[in-house]
Write a structure and sequence with these properties.
The complex is a heterodimer of chains A (117) and B (114).
Chain A: E1 4-6, E2 10-13, E3 19-21, E4 23-25, E5 31-38, E6 42-49, E7 56-57, E8 65-70, E9 73-78, E10 87-94, E11 107-108, E12 112-116
Parallel strand pairs in A: 2-12
Antiparallel strand pairs in A: 1-4, 3-9, 5-6, 5-10, 6-7, 8-9, 10-11, 10-12
Chain B: E1 3-5, E2 10-14, E3 19-21, E4 24-26, E5 32-39, E6 46-52, E7 59-61, E8 64-69, E9 74-79, E10 88-96, E11 102-104, E12 108-113
Parallel strand pairs in B: 2-12
Antiparallel strand pairs in B: 1-4, 3-9, 5-6, 5-10, 7-8, 8-9, 10-11, 10-12
Classes of the chains: A mainly beta (117), B mainly beta (114).
Chain lengths: 117, 114
């Protein structure tokens, strides 16, 4: 069964801490994404990557960075966590748009709920 | 700019009722994809359907059906004879063909009561 696995389901961190959220996919997908989900706002794209070591800003990149050293792994980093980063973080992956049958179809992980105190 | 609007924040129905979830989108792209995803209480979003902008045929899959109307920029989702297991948050989404970003609506939370 294809999967996107997020390392932590629940995290509680202190303001100012550095936070790493890890995501691994086993589908050999080129594209990987980090979204955050907040009530009433839906899902908002933080960063995405279309290849190893490549990254692009999404709609709300401020306060975040990412790393993709291997095709299957995409990490989200909060350099100095703040309370307004308390949220549900969702990792997803997809085939590139050249694959017509699966293009842009996102496979999501279970999510990481981060609380920053 | 792209935008997806799901005006219904929450809907509550009794089991076996039919329910329609509305989705209106805005885009300047000539080719695009529309999607519906389901997020059950467990939290993991699950893909339901992808519709290409040049294919306006309605689609039916079991109790689920989708009505795509380009003239009104709408992509509505109907569940026939709803069941308790349909209780979830449903997201409508949009992406440009050949693009990377998928834009999501705010979601509609559906409660189906036994």
């Amino acid at each position: 069964d294809v999967k996107v696995t997020q390392s932590s389901r629940y995290l509680v961190k202190r303001t100012g801490e550095k936070v790493f959220l890890e995501c691994v996919q086993d589908m050999d997908h080129e594209n990987m994404f980090w979204y955050r989900q907040d009530p009433g706002l839906g899902l908002r794209l933080i960063y995405f990557s279309y290849d190893v070591k490549m990254k692009e800003k999404g709609d709300i990149p401020e306060g975040y960075s990412v790393s993709r050293e291997k095709k299957e792994r995409f990490s989200l980093i909060l350099e100095s966590a703040s309370t307004n980063q308390t949220s549900m973080y969702l990792c997803a992956s997809s085939y590139p748009f050249g694959d017509s049958s699966g293009a842009n179809v996102l496979t999501f992980g279970a999510g990481s709920r981060l609380t920053v105190l | 700019a792209q935008k997806v609007t799901q005006a219904q924040t929450e809907i509550s129905v009794v089991e076996k009722e039919d329910v329609t979830l509305d989705c209106v989108y805005e885009t300047r792209d000539t080719t695009y994809y529309l999607f519906w995803y389901k997020q059950p209480p467990s939290g993991e979003l699950v893909f339901l359907i992808r519709r290409n902008s040049f294919d306006e045929q309605n689609e039916i899959s079991g109790r689920y059906s989708w009505n795509f109307q380009k003239s009104t920029s709408s992509f509505n989702f109907t569940i026939t004879a709803s069941q308790v297991v349909d209780s979830a948050v449903y997201f409508c989404a949009l992406s440009r063909t050949g693009g990377f970003k998928t834009i999501f609506g705010a979601g509609t939370r559906l409660f189906v009561k036994a």
